[in-house]
Every structure is written in structure tokens, then in C-alpha cells.
Amino acid sequence: MNQGTNIDLAVEELRKGNLVALPTETVYGLAANATDEQSVTKIFAAKRRPFFDPLIVHFKDVESILPFVESIPEVAYSLFAKFSPGPLTLLLQKNDRIPGIVTSGLSSVAVRIPNHPDFQRVLHHLDFPLAAPSANVFGYISPTEPAHVVKQFGDEVAYVLDGGRCEFGLESTIVDCTLEPVRILRKGAITAEMLAEVLDYTPEEAKVSSSQPTAPGNIDVHYAPKKPLYVVDAKDLIEPLPANSAVMTFGKTPKVPGVFYADLSPSAELFEAAAAFFRTLHQLDEMPSVRQIYTTWFPEQGLGKALNDKLRRAKSSI
Ligand code: AMP
Ligand code: MG
């Protein structure tokens, strides 16, 4: 696998129908031509992602989405105007220029305008949009730097475009705009409170389960490290922990000897913790001296809700 900062090479591989890992402001994406069935199939194969889990399609701007959807409702224009380019994905009704494999046969397509300058440069060179889920093997921790991608994929990925470390380190928020009032399908970098400023109401979260084909992708085990990850009460962290434990902390936490501590944000900033979250899980998953990871729930507000959602999907039960 090639890695570097060559935009032209990334563009060339995408035109050939190959997979390229691209930086976004949230996590690294595994990109392919969204209008070409064969290229998109390569994404599912490399990620070992089930075909019932639809992909997000990335565009350079709002105008370039128009040829691929039935319409862009007013509410979607308003949300894009405020949060795009950025970590917001909207569900719209697709037309047949988006192949069914991208949307797992659904009539809606998830669209996003990413803000990372390198991703934007690549899109400006192409005359097709890019399907790009997170560049991790299905179910594993999301990648927030090139090394995370390189470690998981071999020659299935033609090129990794190195755009440094991701700014948010949490996936985009997904909002279903096919119905009004709109609903949140996945919590992410843009919180319900932020959306409410544009909508004049606080959007509800859709109740989803992996057995509901209309809301795929919110599969129970997701983003998980290979080692056990336990979410406990803060008071349990000062009890003796098993040998070779690591603790991922948020804010000031009492420390006991013999335990490895990874501080997500000593000053308890949710934004800082979100940026460090996946990177820290990768680090701890790789440290030979760590056998299990402990952490506590985040405050259930703003980005804390999205982080808790990741923890619920990644954790092991005690
Ligand atoms: P990612 O793996 O980060 O690219 O996120 C893709 C997720 O977006 C999927 O797992 C679904 O939860 C959601 N998604 C994408 N397209 C649709 C769709 N048409 N309908 C409902 N959810 C979708
Ligand atoms: Mg993903």
C-alpha cells in the first residue's frame, strides 16, 4: 500500500476504480467512485462490511448533490448552510444515478460535504461523488490517523492520502431529512442542541435496532477494541484493578500505582476528549503491557452523548 500527500495519485487511483483512504475532519474514509457498482463492492470487501450497512456519499458542495437526489428539501438547505462543509450527513431521497449497492437497496441516500481541504481537493478533480465509510475493518475502532489505516489494510487499498490527524475524531452526525420533523439517526460531532438552533425544535433520536432494515448500520457491537473494554463507576477505579489494566480518564481522576492511565482531557473538555477517543483506544489496544481497558461514562450532554453512544457499542460486559 502506498502512502503520501500526492493528490494527483489519489485522484488517478479513484478514476481507475480503486480504493483510496482519504482524510476527513472526523475520521479517515475508505473512498471509491459512488456511481460505480464494482468500485463500491471493493469497499464492502475490504472492510468486510455486511451489504445491509449503507454508505455515506461525499460531494464537494450542495449543487453537486442535486443530480443524484429527487430533491433537496428546504430544511436540508438550511442545515447545510449552517454546518457544511462539515461533520453533518443528511438522508435524502435518491434517484437511480446512485446504485442500490451504496444504499443497501434503500430509496434514501446519506450525503455529506466534508470539510478537510485534501478531501475537497480530490473531489474538485473528479466528476463523480465518493462513497466513503470509515477506513477500518467492520466493527473495529475508527481510524483518526494514516497509521491506523495502514495497519488494518493491505494491498486492497491503493493509496492512503496523508492529511494528518483528524480534527474531531468522532463520526458525522446523521440526520434523516426525508421526513419532517427531521430525526437524528446517529449522534456525532454536531449535537442536537446545535441542530436545534437552525430547526427551532430539538430533533428526536430515531429508535433504531440492528434488526430493523429501515435503519441499518447502528449495529450493536461497533468501534470495539480487540481487548475487553469495561465502563465502570468512577468509584470502582480506585479499587484494586486486575494486573495489566489501563484506564482511560476524563477530567481529574485519582490514580493508583501499577495502572497505566491515558488522559483524554485532563481539563474535562468534551471536544478534546472526542478528538483523542479513537486514537487512545488504538494505542491501548496495541500496548503489549495492557490486557484490559477501563473507563467511565462521559457527562450525558453535548458531545458526551455521542461519546457514550460509542462506549455502549464498544464495551464488553462485566
Ligand atoms: P459510516 O460507516 O461512518 O460511513 O456510516 C454509515 C452509516 O450511515 C450507516 O451505518 C447507517 O447507519 C447510515 N446510513 C447511510 N445511509 C443510510 C440510509 N440510506 N438510511 C439509513 N441510514 C443510512
Ligand atoms: Mg463506520
Question: Can you walk through the features of this model?
Answer:
By secondary structure, this protein is of the alpha/beta class. The chain folds into two domains: 2-205, DHBP synthase, CATH 3.90.870.10; 229-314, Threonylcarbamoyl-AMP synthase, C-terminal domain (Rossmann fold), CATH 3.40.50.11030. 26% of the residues lie in helices and 19% in strands. It is built from eight helices and 15 strands. It has helices at 7-15, 37-47, 74-83, 117-125, 146-152, 192-199, 270-286, 303-314; strands at 2-4, 20-22, 29-33, 56-58, 88-93, 108-112, 130-131, 159-161, 173-176, 183-186, 204-205, 229-231, 245-250, 260-265, 292-295. Strands 1-8-2-3-7-4-6-5-9-10-11 form an eleven-stranded mixed β-sheet, sandwiched between helices. Strands 12-15-13-14 form a four-stranded parallel β-sheet, with helices on one face. The two termini are 39 Å apart. The structure holds adenosine monophosphate and magnesium ion (MG).
Question: How far apart are the termini?
Answer: 39 Å
Number of helices: 8
Count every beta strand, where a strand is a DSSP E run of 2 or more residues. Answer: 15
CATH architecture of the largest domain: Alpha-Beta Complex
Ranges with pLDDT <50 over ≥5 residues?
Answer: 210-217
Q: Give the bound compounds.
A: adenosine monophosphate, magnesium ion
As for the number of domains, it is 2
Averaged pLDDT: 92
How much beta, percentage-wise? 15-25%
Give, in spatial order, the strands making up the sheet with the most strands. Answer: 1-8-2-3-7-4-6-5-9-10-11
